[in-house]
Amino acid sequence: MALWDSIPRREASVIVAGMTHVVREADRPGSKINKKEIVEAVTIVETPPMVAIGVVGYIETPRGLRALKTVWAEHIGEEAKRRFYKNWSKSKKKAFTKACKKWEDDLGKKEIENDLKQIAKYASAVRLICHTQQKLLKRRQKKAHIMEIQLNGGSIPDKISFAREHFEKEIPIRSVFTKDEMIDTIGVTKGKGFKGVTSRWHTKKLPRKTHKGLRKVACIGAWHPSRIQFTVARAGQKGYHHRTEINKKIYDIRRGFHTENGKIVKNNASTEYDIADKSINPMGGFPHYGEVKQDFMILKGCCVGPKKRVLTLRKSLLTHTKRKALESINLKFIDTSSKFGHGRFQTHADKMAFMGPLKKDKERAAARIAATASASA
Q1: Which of 69, 155, 159, 192 could bridge 2 with an S-S bond, Cβ 3.0-4.6 Å?
Q2: Which Gene3D superfamilies match (predicted)?
């Protein structure tokens, strides 16, 4: 049976929503902190399911891997097609029309089977082409992010049959990653623009009386060699850099808003010790993001990039043996107080119980009564 394993690419299926903190019990036998409660910062990453739309086989050449054949699914969503156009509204929207027609007649199906046979015979690596579902995120961007996910484990024919089974199907985050796993995150940092040496390289500021500025490098090199060496700090672009961070621990993977027995269930931030009915969204939502409604992942610490930016999550390339990496995580409390200032209350019910109905609450109630009265009249 083929297994999932994502490879480093520029795009990914997860979106950074924001940060909060959790309380958990440490599980480190022999340590002074063992069985004690600790508070840690975590990142909430929204992870809507991806959709598989194709498979590609790679062969090894003296210059590296080369794509041998690519087979596309019969139906490809509009959000994936948008990625291939600069201006979707003015285009003729003809992308993938020929590839999709192959599935309609016997000649086309025979061609698809031949391509898959060639992949099975010659390919050394098989990757599944997947795209994100922008419509689930309620963001302004409609273009999907497309990436290749490598299939590891099993024979090449097994990988191809596994890929075919998943064509046009959703791939949830739980089928790729698990709780307590160590993963790597790949993304682009927050851009800062053109910066000087003091901000960019944290060089020492010169004394107050320095001529022609003090946020500079005092000496940028000797007379000879008559060139500036690459090791000398210079002004330039800061931020918006591609970065890979290794060893991020998954504290939990939880379901988003879902329906059970005809009712919407939003209770996805409660724990065994904190049984309050609350969602992962802090009061007022995550600043500069909004509400997390899809499945989400809780990662230890921070991640690169601003809110709403995509991240690639990759299986760890290392074999983890340290106790800290193998530690079992048991969350006792997830903070959902407001992240826009100093939050005091975990839920709106807590605030109402402590402060009583506010003026705005009374006005809303009066407006509701007036609306129902006018509707009945």
Answers
A1: 159
A2: 3.30.1430.10, Ribosomal protein L3, domain 3, Translation factors
